[in-house]
Design goal:
The chain is α/β, with parallel strands linked by helices and 353 residues long. Helices cover 49% and strands 11% of the residues. The chain folds into two domains: 2-54 and 338-352, Orthogonal Bundle (5,6-Dimethylbenzimidazole Phosphoribosyltransferase, Chain: A, domain 1); 60-331, Nicotinate-nucleotide-dimethylbenzimidazole phosphoribosyltransferase (CobT), large domain (Rossmann fold), CATH 3.40.50.10210. The chain has helices at 2-10, 16-27, 37-50, 82-93, 97-105, 121-125, 149-166, 183-194, 210-227, 234-241, 244-259, 268-280, 297-305, 322-340, and strands at 60-67, 107-115, 130-131, 172-178, 263-265, 288-290, 292-294, 312-316. The protein is globular, with a radius of gyration of 20 Å. The termini are far apart. Bound molecules: alpha-ribazole-5'-phosphate (RBZ) and nicotinic acid. Alpha-ribazole-5'-phosphate (RBZ) is lined by residues 77, 79, 83, 87, 177-184, 205-206, 318-320.
Length: 353
């Protein structure tokens, strides 16, 4: 509890001085005023986050938090739980979607076992994954709480500790997730914090049909009624209807904020983690960059709640950190514009407005 308390009470906002210095320079670049639009807004944010107008963004790490979910027993996903382990092995072998897009963006992928139900000890022993396993999957929150308060706090602190462990080799973090069934706790968390009917935050996940979607909504409505999470108590929400990888993502974001490093937030699972982090420490939203608009409508509601506008809309519904990886290219582009493009006074040619 000490690491969590220390972290949430110490997070400061962006540097206003660096934001202003970045704006002043961007105002004078050799092009029509602010003609690169949101890429320039992004450059201002990264300067404010890092406290520098020459921010380092070369070393990028996508952290894929993995965990399983007891609520798969209620038939809320198309796929079996065993796929979580198989996908983790796929990430380690470098063959999944996130591996391809991270390679293309020049980012490392680090996989964290936050609470996978299967045995990954061989990978942990070899150092192929980071082992922060809290339990072998959550309890089915259709029949009781997902985890204890103590487990929820340990999972958040594990995420914070991962950010600290990777800080020496990371300029920019990206969040990712793997866990069959995890769109369900994500939707439940978002419905609770945003005080929305769960039907407004639920989507088809990996591809449910209409009848399966109706069942998912019914299961989650009943689960929320049974658990009655308190939206003013983020640990209560996490323990009752959350997930270990979602807690890990929230912790990673809190850690990035304390380290004053940008964290690119992926799809609905990552955004549920981000909302949890925001409820614990509202200022941490200043360190988040929303990568993309997910097909899942709950993600859009959570982003709106935090006042975040996603950079991309590519109809993604994969997770793993794939949107964050694609958005890393934009982060590097934004900083390149800030640091490499000439101002009118620096340019050798004179230009009349
Ligand atoms: C092969 C495969 C790879 C994935 N990679 C990410 N997800 C994504 O889909 C799952 C969430 O959807 P739902 O809540 O409907 O189960 C999570 O594992 C998420 O990371 C995958 C899903 C599958 C099947
Ligand atoms: O928004 C996402 O990242 C997402 C959507 C559906 C399934 N898995 C992930």
């Amino acid at each position: 509890m000490q690491l969590l308390n220390q972290t949430i009470t110490s997070i400061e906002g962006q540097s206003e001085t660096s934001r202003q210095q970045a704006k002043d320079r961007l105002d004078q670049l050799i092009m029509p005023h602010w003609a690169l639009g949101r890429l320039m807004d992004l450059a201002v944010d990264i300067a404010g986050i890092s406290g520098s107008i020459r921010p380092n963004v070369k070393r990028k790490t996508i952290v894929v938090m993995a965990g399983d979910h007891g609520i798969v027993d209620a038939g809320i996903s198309l796929y079996p739980q065993e796929l979580t382990v198989e996908m983790v092995r796929g990430f380690v072998n470098g063959v999944a979607g996130i591996n391809v897009l991270a390679r293309q963006a020049g980012a490392d992928v680090k996989v964290v076992d936050m609470g996978v139900a299967g045995d990954l000890s061989d990978l942990a022993i070899n150092g192929d994954i980071i082992d922060r396993k809290i339990a072998a999957g959550t309890n089915n929150f259709a029949t009781g709480e997902a985890m204890s308060r103590a487990q929820a706090i340990r999972a958040l602190e594990a995420g914070i500790s991962v950010a600290h462990d990777l800080a020496g080799t990371t300029d920019v973090f990206g969040t990712g997730d793997m866990g069959i069934g995890n769109t369900s706790p994500s939707s439940a968390i978002i419905a609770t914090f945003c005080q929305l009917p769960v039907a407004d935050t639920v989507g088809r996940g990996t591809g449910l049909d209409d009848a399966q979607l109706a069942n998912k909504i019914k299961v989650l409505e009943k689960a929320l009624e049974l658990n009655n999470p308190d939206p003013t108590d983020p640990i209560d929400v996490l323990s009752k209807v959350g997930g270990y990888e979602i807690a890990g993502i929230a912790g990673l974001i809190l850690g990035a904020a304390i380290l004053k490093k940008p964290v690119i937030v992926d799809g609905i699972i990552s955004t549920a983690g981000a909302l949890l982090a925001a409820r614990l420490a509202p200022k941490c939203t200043e360190y988040m960059i929303a990568a993309h608009r997910s097909v899942e409508k709950g993600q859009i509601a959570a982003l709106a709640d935090m006042g975040k506008e996603p950079l991309l809309d590519l109809q993604f519904r994969l997770g793993e950190g794939t949107g964050a990886a694609v958005a890393m290219n934009l982060v590097e582009g934004a900083v390149a514009i800030l640091t490499e493009m000439a101002t009118f006074s620096e340019a050798t040619v004179s230009m009349e407005k």
